[in-house]
Amino acid sequence: MTTSPARSSFGSARSNFSLSDHDRQHHRQDLVGGAMLPIFLNDLNHNNQDLVEVTLELNNNDDDIVVCSVAPVASGTSEDEETGPGMLGRSLSATSRSLRRTFGWLIRSTSSRTAASSNSSELPLPPREARRLKAKLQRTRSGAQRALNGLRFISKTTGPSDAEELWKQVEARFESLAVDGLLARADFGRCIGMADSEEFAVGIFDTLARRRRQNITKISKEELRDFWSQISDQSFDARLQIFFDMADSNEDGRITREGVQELIMLSASANKLSKLKEQAEEYASLIMEELDPENFGYIELWQLEALLLQRDVYIDYSRPLSAVSVAWSQNLSSFRPKNLLRRLNRSLNCLILDNWQRGWILLLWIVAMASLFAWKFYQYRNKAAFEVIRYCLPVAKGAAETLKLNMALILLPVCRNTLTWLRSTRARSFIPFDDSTNFHKMIAFAIAIGIIVHAGNHVACDFPRLVNSSPEEFAPISADFHGKKPTYEFLFTGPEGLTGILMVIFMAISFTLAASHFRKNMVRLPAPFNKLTGFNAFWYSHHLLGLVYVLLLIHGSCLYFVHKWYQKTTWMYISVPFLLYVVERSIRTCRSKHYAVKILKASNLPGNVISLIMSKPPGFKYRSGQYIFLQCPSISPFEWHPFSITSAPGDDHLSVHIRTVGDWTKELKRAISEGDHSISIVHQASVTAMDQRRLFNQPKLFLDGPYGAPAQDYRNYDVLLLVGLGIGATPFVSILKDLLNSTRTAEEQTDSNTETSTSDSLSSFTSSCLTPNDKKKSQRTTNAHFYWVTREPGSFEWFKGVMDEVAEMDHKGQIELHNYLTSVYEEGDARSTLITMVQALNHAKHGTDILSGTSVMTHFARPNWKEVFTKIASKHPFSTVGVFYCGMPMLAKELKMLSLELSQKTSTRFEFHKEYF
Fold first, then answer.
1. pLDDT higher than threshold 60 for residue 719
2. Which of 25-34, 239-248, 524-533, 734-743 has the lowest mean pLDDT?
């Protein structure tokens, strides 16, 4: 920019701003400062000062103005040529000083890349001072605004009404904790809502007490109110000062490495990160190295502030989410119909697309039951017995007909081998195999209703009418009872009545113990009835249903009003499904004896998890996402338990990860430990030195499977979103390994094709024409996003090798790995702020995560699933995304709703699948 008497047009777009008195007083580097430049340049014109060229750098995104240089104007006039160098130097110096006086905020913002001209008489700033001024400028940048909202000492962002409500809660806790009107220092954390971070809360207490120049161990309610007002202050500067003072114990305005270490230890203790606490000294040195490159041995408040405000410089994962925001809005606005009818039509279409498979199956089932009920009702409506028993009889018989159908259908969802085979056929395109367990439960519910209707009508209506009928009424049906009118004793103790009673008892036991509260051991019963809860009770009680089917065949062959064998249809309904189930169980038994596996390696991992690497039986083939059943005869010869396969199909071994939460898994861990006395239990603190020795004399394991699961169809989707909670990540580890192996194979094939093309161009042309199409058919999936959410830091040790291998081999960025630790306080909480920065610094400098030890950075708190879905929708428009989830039911509902919502609002279609065993 060149100033001249005739031209001073710079900043005309901003010339309508004025500089406030407050800004003049503090020399704030705000946008309004730019409005003073035209006025200042006009003053130069009127005063006939020398012509200079002032170069400014404008940052449109951050609204910053930085002076780059002040240089003379080479106008070429004789007057300028006559100007001596001394006069030019004095002119530049005067202009520079005038700029400093008028726009001090511009000159103070100079950095190493925006230094003043060498002709200026200004001396360069020391590096530390230059960084301080640059840090002050950074505070105005848009990227720092989110950090300015962080560093909260209370978990909720408060307004005036919220703050008052929170204080009432603190006041109520004070009344219950205070003794003689004074609150003890140790109870301060419980009082302000930091009961699980008492050590951190004590640090806050001591800091606020030092401010009052007091060395106290108890405070009154008035002092508590003062403390509370300080920690709930909405000003970032106030919160930052408290955080700084927690490490500045001598109040000299400086923090040494020991002070930083103390802060890290307090934060690690609050978040229960013992591993981080042990390495606090190392990470304190890392922070000092970053903030104190001059080795002064201390840092000041502005340096800590700079570290917090430059968070986005180090944390890579914040950029993708913000980078796609524009694309997401375009994707959303482009494909969301503005017309209400069109939006409703799109929502209806998405609803149909997501549920048409379930819909036609349920519709067919309901129509079949209704038809059978109506047919049997009409049949008995025209029998002679109707004149005696009236409508009770056809209703009971109609319900019985639906019971026959449902007793046959309920066996089909548990024929796992058949379902696994059908999953690999075209039947998967119109049959929802993922809902087989839900369909099994629905049929069971329909059976329960059918039993109530059938047995209830017999006991409450049929039997009383039949027993109390007159001889004239009974005469038309006397032949069905051999001429003798039945009594209650005859009806209940006869073959039909006795089998019916036994079936009701067995089914009541089986259904009750199969309920989720009993099966998941949520019902607490006193001994010895506590044995009636848990998986074992569910498993064994379900075998009573085998007797139920035998009794059902007897019950259906002893009918009073039907005498011809082909009219007794019970055997027609259940024979084929029952035989299929018997064949399935027989195959399972024979195959399990053939699939006896040896334990090659066992590892005790943090979080009560054991990893088993087993020999792969000859001819055993499986697909990623499938699961197997394991049996240990030394524990129980009858119990089989399902576990997801974590090895890839191309591996020469089988691996599973088992969480020891039940009786069987605990016994398995004990049996493995006793099998080799040299194996040691690895504690969480020494995971890195995990003992993984080859085991001998281990218990024999039988294997049954593999069986189909929703995740096995992952190749049917363009993009994968894999979400695992805790041990629920196991089915997706195999998928990640398989994708990695496919990538490696594709690279090797590409290299092979390249070599072939060098030797034979014709062969290369043919290969280039055929290979891509073949690859596309076999490998539809192009990208995968894996989100693993866990509460325990040690969980990341389970699949550390897989994470490192995927991160190392995935050169094209096709697989995104995201680890989330929910036991750490959410982003913006003062208890996790320093941990977040240590995490970011260490990952930026060394490329490793401080918690998992892998190259995958661990995020804290829970993912924002709405942001995750919108990011994927904007990144992969017009794609079909397979959302696979394995974990707690509550999150499944949220993910399913988001899948439906984003499918309606964007061009990306999300299909949700939940893992069932």
1. yes
2. 25-34
DSSP, res 394:
H
CB-count exposure of residue 857 (10 Å: 0-12, 13-18, 19+): buried
Q: Which of 200-209, 216-225, 274-283, 735-744 has the lowest mean pLDDT?
A: 735-744
Torsion angle, CA of 844/846/849/851, rounded to 10 degrees?
-130
Range 488-499 average pLDDT: 89
Q: Report the amino acid identity of residue 835.
A: I
Distance separating alpha carbons of residues 379 and 386, to the nearest angstrom: 10
Q: Which amino acid makes up residue 458?
A: H
Q: What is the spatial distance between Cα 611 and Cα 616, in angstroms, rounded to a whole number? A: 15
**Alpha-carbon distance values, 100 to 40, 97, 109, 114, 133 (Å):** 12, 5, 11, 15, 15
Cα–Cα distance between 305 and 309 in angstroms, integer?
Answer: 6
pTM more than 0.85: no
Counting every residue written for the chain, the total comes to 917
Alpha carbons 116 and 110: distance in angstroms, whole number = 8
- Beta strands across the sheet bearing 599-605: 599-605, 609-615, 653-659
Burial-class residue 385 by CB neighbours within 10 Å (0-12, 13-18, 19+).
Answer: buried
Question: Tokens at residue 759, please?
Answer: 């030797």
Q: Which residues contact 196 (CB under 8 A, 6 or more apart)?
A: 270
**Structure confidence at residue 305 as a pLDDT band (50, 70, 90):** confident
Q: Determine contact, residues 782/814, Cβ cutoff 8 Å.
A: yes
Single-letter code of the amino acid located at 609: V
- Tens digits of per-residue pLDDT, 307-323? 777 665 655 443 333 33
Q: Give the span between the Cα atoms of 394 and 405, in whole angstroms.
A: 17
Which of these, 912, 917, 607, 876, lies nearest to 718 by C-alpha position?
876
Predicted confidence band of residue 117 (pLDDT cuts 50, 70, 90) = very low
Q: In one letter, which amino acid is 465?
A: R
Cβ of 797: how many Cβ atoms within 10 Å?
24
* Residue 507 one-letter amino acid: M
Please choose, from the candidates 578, 576, 579, 574, the residue with its C-alpha nearest in 3D space to the C-alpha of residue 405.
574
Cβ atoms 592, 638 nearer than 8 A:
no
Query: Closest Cα to residue 808, out of 841, 850, 754, 847?
Result: 847
Smallest CA-to-CA distance from 156 within 188, 204, 190, 192 is with 192
Q: Average pLDDT over the chain, rounded to whole?
A: 76
Using 50, 70 and 90 to split pLDDT, how confident is the model at 402?
very high
Distance CA 900, CA 289 (A): 49
Share of residues in the chain with pLDDT > 90 (%): 14
Output the pLDDT for position 783: 86
Q: Are 257 and 285 in contact (CB under 8 A)?
A: yes
**What is residue 377's predicted lDDT score, i.e. its pLDDT?**
92
Sequence-separated (6 or more) residues with CB below 8 Å from residue 485: 466, 467, 469, 471, 474, 478
Instruction: Return the closest-CA partner of residue 311 out of 64, 133, 136, 144.
Output: 144
DSSP-based three-state secondary structure for 276: helix
Tokens of 27: 């020399």
Does residue 706 have a cis peptide bond before it, meaning omega lies within 30 degrees of 0?
Answer: yes
Nearest to 119 by CA among 139, 144, 94: 94
Does residue 37 carry a pLDDT above 80? no
Tell me what pLDDT residue 837 has: 82
